[in-house]
């Protein structure tokens, strides 16, 4: 009979084991419940008289028996009295003598009817021996059974394999079975070969190791390769059940492996494993395996896709993410004062739902040696790691990809989001022209297959358009902190960025003091030689940047821009044009050809191809009329155009302005705010409106649209506010049940 101490499992796992054991032992259906500071109920069932019997579990391996009894008397007894159950059963992972059981019965008298309703470690171990299927059902329990331990370490395995196995076994307490793990087991059962892939920190190595441990417990001998496939071939024994494990089998650089002919050797070994009493488990980063597939036909011949499984953090369910965090908390050596920080306002929900959630980050923030701050600084420490998880990507960028791939990934940063394949191809072509890369001869397809799945996500939209984005937003965070702020690197890489992205991103980077203004100024001057070929919008943007950086007008650009304005330009630059003209009018009206500009304004008003409800548009027209419209004729014409446009568009404008405040109980629509919006638009302008004109525009606002959006945005706002406070969304109940109301006590 096994003698479990249960110290390898957490309290929630212990409660489930007790529930399963008592269901079998008592022949009842035990329900499990939330355990928290106000509960006192871990399970219940109904007896033959339909009376409720409550089950309380205590799994506190670091608490002495005397302290446990004190806790029961002080904390648990008042809860039981309040619940007043027909019966009460107590189970603990602590070993109990007959005297101990009597004392616990007396503590909970009259609710515990008999001493045999108190179960200690020795009783639970007996039940486990009586019901071996329950032992097998609970993975961590089974892994530490006497029979499995004998199977694990009684084989004549090499010293290295033994060390790896012991290390994996030790880490098993921190492992959480996920759907990905179960699917990997099924893949392996079907094919005998399994390649587990994924991005850094997603859990591929942990999952592969635990599968090895599972098989070792099934009487498989573990053989671990340190560097070469030959190590596995030399240990091959036809008559023996064996599991071969090769972590990161293609290494950091696929071409090194290719030169050593690792691919063909692995191919032959996998073919050898396909049938019989052997299993072969390999891991690889997704990008390295993709490069391998492209560079050799061996993976195609092997049909490797049949036994590949990619672990993606996005595929974890919220509850699986919660289990991973909770298990780390339970086994953490952090003081309780730190854990209370995570429980405050249910902040653990914020961690679980964070866009950068990653098992490696969870390990980092719950490991004592990494937490070098006081408890009151711990939440900020967690947020910093989630917002900028450098450690996840540093190794991949520095040693896991070539410099051409790295620079291509970094260039994508300047586009601030989803990028079309056409743009990525253009960036790649620009880099290739430099000729400074050892693999510059490679095609775009070769590079993108290497990066897809590891650092980039490729999406084919319903229209057929192909786009790329980072696999995780933290990739961009890492690039920003590690590369963009380096002057030498910035000056080299920025030359490949098109004008529009160069202007937009560098403006933001300067404002946030990531880069220096002189870096940008130098690049701007280097591009001005081709200014005549720029689109009007780009010319104005360069003009504005130069004025910002030098506090001077650039006469050459100004002349080019005015020429474009007078002679016509493509749609999409109106806002930039109006701002430019306003600035020029305020600088010196002598730069303006009044007749040409008046003609252009009348053209705009005729086709109404720019948004007259933008305050800056009205401000521009007001400035123009103040300086050039002495007769007031143009001003009247403009006012009529604006009024007509406003009546058609006031609803959308009002819903987007600061006056609009979402409210759930909006029943009767009040136009007073809309009146204020219209009045503010025309105040202090030459286009003053009468009260009746203001009300005519205000009453054009669509009441139904305002009410609908008001209620919708109120609901969204309310949910966001609840999230900030850590309150439950729909579906969070299971997570809150798992965590309880306070940090687990041991």
From TrEMBL:
Residue ranges of domain Novel STAND NTPase in the record: 175-331
Presence of the UniProt keyword Plastid in the record: no
Domain of life, per lineage: Bacteria
Recorded GO MF terms: endonuclease activity
InterPro entries according to UniProt: nSTAND3 (IPR049050), P-loop_NTPase (IPR027417), Restrct_endonuc-II-like (IPR011335), Restrct_endonuc_IV_Mrr (IPR007560), tRNA_endonuc-like_dom_sf (IPR011856)
Swiss-Prot/TrEMBL keywords: Endonuclease, Hydrolase, Nuclease
Pfam families, A to Z: Mrr_cat, nSTAND3
Record domain Restriction endonuclease type IV Mrr: where: 7-60
Name of the protein in its database record: Restriction endonuclease
Species annotation: Pseudovibrio ascidiaceicola
């Amino acid at each position: 009979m096994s003698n479990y101490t249960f110290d390898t499992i957490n309290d929630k796992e212990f409660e489930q084991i007790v529930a399963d054991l008592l269901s079998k032992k008592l022949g009842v259906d035990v329900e499990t419940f939330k355990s928290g500071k106000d509960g006192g109920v871990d399970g219940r069932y109904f007896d033959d008289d339909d009376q409720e019997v409550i089950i309380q579990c205590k799994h506190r391996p670091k608490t002495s028996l005397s302290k446990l009894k004190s806790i029961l008397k002080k904390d648990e007894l008042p809860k039981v009295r309040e619940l007043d159950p027909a019966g009460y059963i107590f189970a603990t992972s602590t070993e109990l003598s007959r005297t101990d059981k009597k004392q616990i019965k007396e503590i909970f008298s009259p609710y515990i009817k008999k001493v045999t309703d108190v179960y200690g470690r020795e009783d639970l171990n007996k039940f486990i021996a009586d019901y071996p299927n329950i032992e097998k059902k609970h993975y961590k329990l089974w892994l530490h059974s006497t029979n499995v331990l004998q199977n694990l370490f009684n084989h004549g395995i090499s010293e290295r394999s033994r060390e790896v196995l012991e290390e994996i076994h030790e880490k098993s307490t921190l492992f959480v079975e996920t759907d990905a793990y179960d699917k990997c087991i099924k893949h392996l059962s079907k094919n005998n070969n399994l390649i587990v892939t994924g991005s850094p920190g997603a859990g591929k190595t942990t999952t592969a190791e635990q599968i090895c441990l599972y098989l070792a417990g099934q009487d498989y001998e573990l053989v671990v390769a340190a560097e070469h496939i030959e190590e596995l071939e030399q240990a091959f024994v036809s008559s023996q059940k064996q599991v071969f494990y090769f972590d990161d089998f293609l290494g950091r650089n696929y071409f090194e492996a290719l030169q050593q002919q690792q691919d063909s050797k692995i191919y032959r070994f996998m073919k050898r494993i396909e049938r019989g009493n052997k299993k072969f488990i390999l891991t690889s980063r997704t990008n390295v395996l993709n490069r391998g597939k492209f560079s050799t036909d061996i993976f195609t011949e092997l049909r490797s896709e049949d036994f590949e499984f990619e672990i993606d953090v996005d595929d974890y369910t919220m509850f699986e993410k919660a289990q991973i965090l909770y298990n780390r908390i339970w086994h953490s050596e952090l003081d309780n004062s730190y854990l209370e920080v995570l429980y405050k306002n249910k902040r653990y929900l914020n961690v679980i739902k964070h866009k950068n959630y990653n098992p490696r980050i969870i390990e980092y923030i719950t490991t004592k040696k990494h937490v070098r701050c006081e408890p009151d600084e711990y939440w900020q420490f967690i947020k910093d790691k989630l917002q900028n998880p450098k450690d996840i990507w540093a190794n991949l960028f520095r040693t896991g990809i070539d410099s051409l791939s790295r620079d291509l990934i970094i260039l994508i940063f300047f586009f601030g989001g989803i990028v079309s394949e056409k743009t990525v191809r253009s960036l790649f072509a620009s880099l290739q022209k430099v000729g400074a890369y050892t693999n510059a001869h490679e095609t775009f397809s070769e590079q993108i297959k290497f990066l897809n799945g590891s650092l980039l996500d490729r999406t084919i939209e319903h229209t057929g358009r192909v786009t790329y984005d980072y696999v995780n937003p933290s990739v961009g965070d890492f690039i920003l902190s590690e590369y963009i702020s380096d002057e030498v690197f910035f000056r080299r890489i920025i030359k490949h960025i098109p004008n529009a992205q160069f202007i937009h991103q560098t403006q933001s980077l300067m404002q946030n003091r990531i880069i220096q203004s002189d870096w940008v100024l130098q690049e701007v001057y280097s591009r001005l030689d081709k200014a005549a070929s720029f689109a009007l919008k780009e010319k104005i943007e360069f003009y504005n940047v130069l004025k910002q950086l030098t506090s001077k007008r650039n006469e050459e650009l100004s002349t080019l821009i005015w020429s474009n304005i007078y002679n016509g330009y493509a749609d999409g630059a109106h806002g930039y044009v109006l701002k430019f003209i306003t600035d020029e009018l305020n600088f010196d009206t002598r730069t303006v050809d009044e007749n040409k500009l008046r003609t252009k304004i009348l053209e705009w008003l005729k086709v109404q191809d720019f948004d007259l409800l933008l305050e800056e548009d009205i401000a521009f027209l007001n400035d123009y009329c103040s300086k050039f419209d002495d007769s007031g004729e143009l001003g009247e014409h403009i006012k009529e155009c604006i009024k007509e446009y406003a009546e058609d568009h006031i609803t959308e404008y009002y819903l987007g302005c600061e006056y609009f405040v979402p409210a759930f109980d909006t029943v009767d629509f009040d136009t007073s705010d809309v009146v204020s919006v219209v009045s503010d638009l025309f105040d202090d302008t030459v286009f003053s409106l009468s009260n009746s004109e203001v009300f005519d525009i205000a009453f054009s606002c669509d009441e139904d649209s305002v009410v609908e959006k008001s209620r919708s945005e109120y609901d969204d706002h309310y949910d966001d506010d609840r999230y900030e406070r850590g309150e439950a969304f729909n579906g969070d109940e299971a997570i809150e049940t798992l965590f309880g109301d306070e940090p687990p006590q041991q």
